[in-house]
Automatic annotation (TrEMBL), chains A, B:
UniProt cross-references to Gene3D superfamilies, sorted A to Z: Tetracycline Repressor, domain 2
Location of the DNA-binding region in this protein: 33-52
Domain HTH tetR-type: from-to ranges: 12-70
Keywords per UniProt: DNA-binding, Transcription, Transcription regulation
SUPFAM superfamilies noted in UniProt: Homeodomain-like
Protein name as it appears in the record: HTH tetR-type domain-containing protein
PANTHER family: HTH-TYPE TRANSCRIPTIONAL REGULATOR BETI, HTH-TYPE TRANSCRIPTIONAL REGULATOR RUTR
Length: 199, 199
DNA sequence: TGTGCATTGCACACACGTGTGCAATGGATC
DNA sequence: GATCCATTGCACACGTGTGTGCAATGCACA
């Protein structure tokens, strides 16, 4: 406990619980109101307003958190200077749990704060587009779609798989990785090898 | 003009214009209200209520129309008893314009009337899952995901491509077809051949 | 036993979208 | 010219979600 007092720690804990609960409530219904979010956390609506002045603030915080985590993974991986295929596979391995946790994100891009979320995601989109472009230049990714579109489709496919609500273990990161590699035009045998020979 | 009078024809026309305008308004923002829909049509809110008693009615009509058109194409194609690959390609060729027109559909599956829309789409989902299952049994589609999930991913990928808002002609049906075939695990060379050698 | 702070419970005011009622308008039809 | 009917413009009631204010409660700490 590096926090000064137990009380301040409790407040921080509540804040985190609100963030988690909001993620869960919004995951079920992207239009969930402050009341439903509060219920998911196990507190009263009034309490949530004690930590986040507006619903927009709460959603923005959530989105920023998601984007930050994804961007961190992406930039870290990008620095490793491997082949585009390898970079993508490594990225997917670390993206998968995030895609599960933040599956709201894709729904959030539409509706209400969509414009704002989209702006937050722009650097991520850019990095992905660059990566796919490098892959296309290296002839390891297909050219059936322009890089900026293809990267989006491959990216959203991962979230689509994460969103398919199957018993988590039944699908797993490998399936998502293989699927996204296929979208990118990687031959299935190679996709399977890349996905499995990762550890 | 097979309608009895010119006035009745005008009313029918207004109804169709409302449907079209609603499709466009909801395409931009799935949460568009009756006011925004009316504006998109070029009439007043009150007029829309003259044709559709509630917003839910309007949305339901739209969704039913979309599902009906898709289901019609699907059942017609399915009757042609070709190979799963060929059936899928034919389906995609005819689905593409619909995916453009009804790109709202995917957004509508979430939020508010999601449950209802989902129920409407169930027969379509079932047919697609069956088709993909046949493809997997014939070893022409991959098994990286179970058929019910894989069909959904491939299907939504088409809508994702349609939704990518690129100059329509710049992408085209072929790219969408190839992409969905890749998702299904069809080798890229074969996917390209199938998509191009269609006419 | 007091003090502090997080949480609660209820009270509002407010904005917004929905759906309805009704009189007025204006163009096409007879 | 009289009539019909789609459309309009404005009125309203209603529900729902948001955000705020304030007193009451209760647990922890000193």
């Amino acid at each position: 406990m590096q926090t000064g007092s137990a009380r301040a720690g409790a407040a921080d804990d509540t804040r985190r619980r609100i963030l988690d609960g909001a993620l869960e409530a919004l995951g079920r219904d992207p239009d969930a109101g402050m009341g439903e979010i509060a219920s998911a956390v196990g507190v009263v609506r009034r309490t949530v307003y004690g930590y986040f002045p507006t619903r927009a603030d709460l959603v923005r915080t959530l989105a920023r958190q998601a984007v930050d985590e994804i961007a961190a993974v992406l930039s870290e991986i990008n620095a490793s200077a491997g082949s585009p295929e390898r970079v993508w596979v490594d990225f997917l391995a670390r993206l998968w749990p995030l895609a599960h946790r933040y599956r709201v994100l894709v729904a959030l891009r539409r509706g209400e704060y969509g414009h704002e979320i989209h702006a937050l995601l722009e650097p991520v989109d850019q990095s992905l587009a660059d990566l796919v472009q490098r892959g296309q230049d290296a002839e390891v990714f297909g050219r059936h779609l322009p890089a900026p579109v293809l990267s989006q489709i491959a990216f959203s496919a991962v979230f689509a798989v994460a969103d398919s609500s199957l018993p988590d273990a039944l699908i797993g990161a490998d399936a998502a990785t293989v699927t996204s590699l296929l979208v990118l035009g990687v031959p299935d045998a190679r996709a399977r090898a890349l996905a499995e020979g990762h550890a």
